[in-house]
Design a protein that fits this description.
Blueprint (H helix, E strand, L loop, with lengths): L1 H19 L4 E7 L14 H11 L4 E7 L2 H10 L5 E5 L8 E2 L4 E3 L1 E6 L17 E4 L2 H4 L2 H9 L3 E4 L2 H9 L5 E5 H7 L3 H4 L9 E4 L5 E7 L2 H16 L2 H15 L1
Parallel strand pairs: 1-2, 1-3, 7-8, 7-9
Antiparallel strand pairs: 3-11, 4-11, 5-11, 6-9, 6-10
């Protein structure tokens, strides 16, 4: 009997202690679905990996990621039905949600072919260049850029960032303007790497603008406040910088 009790007692203790643990709170987080920031297959991507690190520090929540377009994210937040939080929301977005500290970094750059040996050190150097930029760039990259773009008959904006990469890769445009991580992701596509023998080393990255950040939007202020503490921790302990550097290295090597 003593031997039976010896083996049963630890099991009972484990069962009772597990029942006493507080249940995790379900948290549905809406995320975008565009590479390399959010990739639904395998639930990975630059911004998604950062989000996971934040919620690792908030173990009281059982997080479910729901993939959708960025425009739909805002609609879902307003609808107050499907999601509790949304990633990649800009400060000027029309939302009443509680925004986290800035966390998701966009690094807009100008990109040109190395063989063209272009000198682009400031925005005015773009004036006589043929340029492919992302949709809305004239409203986001400052007054100097907007003035240049409006006066440049060779400037055009495109809805798909991949189109801007294609145009500069095949030589139809001299300069691509957009996020550096999206460019590095696009240029490793088989159509460039295998068919045309082009990779990121064939281009020069011209850094003309400061980084821009987006946020996580929360419906609950208390959860937002907890997330801010976690964000500060991954900034302080180097996790955030490590993820960005790992992705830039990975994208250049692919």
């Amino acid at each position: 009997m003593a031997r039976i009790i010896k083996y049963i007692l630890p099991t009972l203790v484990l069962l009772l202690s597990s029942q006493l643990l507080p249940a995790k709170q379900a948290l549905r987080v809406g995320v975008g679905n565009f590479e390399p920031f959010f990739i639904e297959k395998g639930e990975r991507g630059l911004f998604l990996d950062i989000t996971k690190e934040i919620f690792k520090l908030l173990p009281e929540y059982e997080v479910e990621f729901i993939f959708m377009s960025n425009t739909r994210l805002l609609r879902e937040m307003k609808a107050d039905i499907r999601i509790d939080a949304a990633c990649n929301i800009f400060a000027n977005s029309e939302t009443n949600a509680y925004l986290s500290a800035p966390i998701f970094r966009y690094t807009d750059v100008a990109v040109s072919k190395a063989e063209n040996k272009m000198v682009i050190d400031q925005i005015s150097d773009l004036q006589d260049k043929s340029i492919a930029a992302y949709q809305g760039a004239t409203d986001l990259l400052g007054e100097k850029f907007k003035k240049m773009a409006l006066a440049n008959s060779q400037y055009a904006e495109y809805a798909l960032p991949s189109e801007t990469t294609k145009l500069v890769a095949i030589g139809k445009k001299e300069v691509r303007v957009g996020d550096v991580y999206i460019f590095l992701h696009d240029i490793k596509a088989p159509m460039y790497k295998e068919r045309k023998n082009i990779d990121s080393s064939d281009f020069v990255i011209h850094r003309l603008w400061p980084d821009v950040y987006s946020h996580i939007a929360f419906k609950d202020k208390d959860i937002r406040d907890k997330a801010n503490v976690a964000i500060q921790e991954i900034k302080t302990n180097g996790t955030l910088d490590r993820i960005y550097k790992e992705y830039e290295t990975y994208l250049k090597l692919q």
